[in-house]
Structure formats: structure tokens, C-alpha cells
Amino acid sequence: MDRLIFAAIGYVSIALLSILCIVPFILIISSSLTEESRIVLEGYKFFPSEFSTEAYKILFKYPDQLIQAYTVTILVTLAGTLVGLFLTAMTAYCLSRRDFKWRNQFSFFFFFTTLFSGGLVPWYLMMVNYLHLKDTPLALIIPLLLNVFYIIVMKSFMSNIPEAIVESAKIDGAGDFLIFMRLILPLAKPALATIGLFLALGYWNDWYNALLFVSSENLMPLQYYLYKMLGNLDGIRKAMAGSGAVATTPLPSEGLKMAMTIVASGPILIAYPFIQKYFVQGLTIGAVKG
User: Fold this and answer.
1) What is the pTM of this model?
2) Would you say 191 and 158 are in contact if contact means Cβ atoms under 8 Å apart?
């Protein structure tokens, strides 16, 4: 009986939490399809009081540029996530090995970078003047490759992998890299999936590095493209207000923001159910046979 009550409370809690997560997204979809004047007068509603697709017309006015921005973002996200995940896992594996003599010193070195940094200007000068990465895809990939927090999380997970697995592989003649690739990575699937998702979200939502290092429209990622579009719309509105010009139809500022949210988050929401299965995969793998 107690199990049934506990299960019922759990299901109800999860259902309520799911509703709380879905409701804001429904509100965003409805607002993106609502006439701008209705949003200004009535606020956000779950059902459009006056249907309008003007925000999407503006957003897709130049489809070639939008597709190009999507392509850049997808390629940067894939490349950055794969390389960053591999480097994070390899770094965490070295720091988790108790036979690595300098692991405490390197751990302190990584942790030190979370407290102090060189600042924006030295970083910009190094990226532009010394590494010559301005207007290159690497300028969008390299800054987000390694995150100390992700390394610490991965290190903590790998530290729980039994040492007997590594020792038995060494007895069989396997080297460190082979052990890492054939044993450690398969056992670390839950951590890899979690960190991989965080890395992918970071690359997908990044616009700041594009603002600093990208001036070519061919390398403009999706988030920066939408940011510039919204800035241009605000500039047009201010210019019209200053000159006293009146638009025939209100420029959909709020509706455009909601439409941008849908366009920017749609692919991630579609991909998430396919990634989610890897979170539970491998949780029971790694037990040492007695």
C-alpha cells in the first residue's frame, strides 16, 4: 500500500512538473502567432486573440541567410561537442588516475583558472593578433572546448570506476590509450551524455564569440544572426520614431522575439528525446565480477 501511495505521489509530481515546463513553451508559440498590437494591449495569452504570422514573415524574409546561419551553428555544434567531449574525457581520465604523479598539481592549475583570468582584452589580442583566428570557424569552436566544471564532473565519475578493470587490462598488455578508448569511455556513457548535452547547448546558444571574432556573414551562427536581426528592427523603430514616420503595420517586436525563440530552440527540443536514452544507458555497466 505504501508503495502505491509513493508511486502515485511521484507520478502526480512528475506530471505537474511536466505541465510547468510545457506551459511557458505553449505561451511562447501563442505569442509568436499573435498580432503585435494585441500583445501590447492585452499581454501574453495562451490563445491568440488576433492571429498573425507577421513575425515569421520577417524572420524568414531572407531564407538563404537563415539557412546559412543554421548550417554554421550545426557544424560548429557538432565539431565543438565531439572534440570538446573527447578532450574533457581524456583530461578527466588523467586526473582520475591515482598513479599519475602530478594529478594534484594539474588539478590545482585547472581550478586556478576558474578564479582568475587574463581578462577580455588580452584574450581578444591573443585570439586575433597571435592565433589569427578572426573570421575563422575555429574562433567559434576553441573558446568553448574545455570547461573546468565539466572536467571536475567527469573526473568524479571516472574516479568511481573500479581500478580492477584497469589493472586487469594492463595485465593483458593493454596500453593507457587503449584502456581509455575501449574500457573507460564505454563505462562513462552517462557522464559523456550529460557533458555532451551541456557542451552542445553551449555551442548552440553561443553568440558572444561571434560578436567578438566574426564579421563575415558566411560565418555568422544562428544566435548572432537573430541578435543582429532584432537589433536592426529596434534601430528601424527608433529611426521611425525620431523622424515621425508611421508604419502601416506595427513592427512585431515582442512577437518576433517569441518566433526567434521557437526557431532557435526547435532543433534542440527535437533532438533531446533521441539523446535522453543515453542518460540511463550504461548505469549498471562496470560491475566487477567476483
Assistant:
1) 0.80
2) yes
Q: Count CB-CB contacts under 10 A for residue 254.
A: 16
**What's CA 171's distance to the chain center, in Å?**
40
* Residue with cell string 548552440: 204
**Using an 8 Å Cβ cutoff, are 280 and 239 in contact?**
no
Question: Which among 196, 246, 213, 245 has a CA at the least distance from the CA of 79?
Answer: 196
**C-alpha span between 254 and 40 (Å, rounded):** 8
**pLDDT digits (tens), the chain, 290 positions:** 678 888 888 888 888 888 888 888 888 888 888 887 777 777 777 787 778 787 888 888 878 888 888 899 999 999 999 999 999 999 988 888 887 888 888 888 888 888 887 788 888 888 888 988 898 999 999 999 988 888 888 888 888 888 888 888 888 777 888 888 888 888 888 888 888 888 988 999 888 999 889 888 888 898 888 888 877 777 766 776 666 655 555 566 777 788 888 888 877 777 677 666 655 544 443 444 43
DSSP structure class, residue 281: T
125 to each of 45, 122, 147, 249, how far by Cα in Å?
A: 47, 5, 21, 45
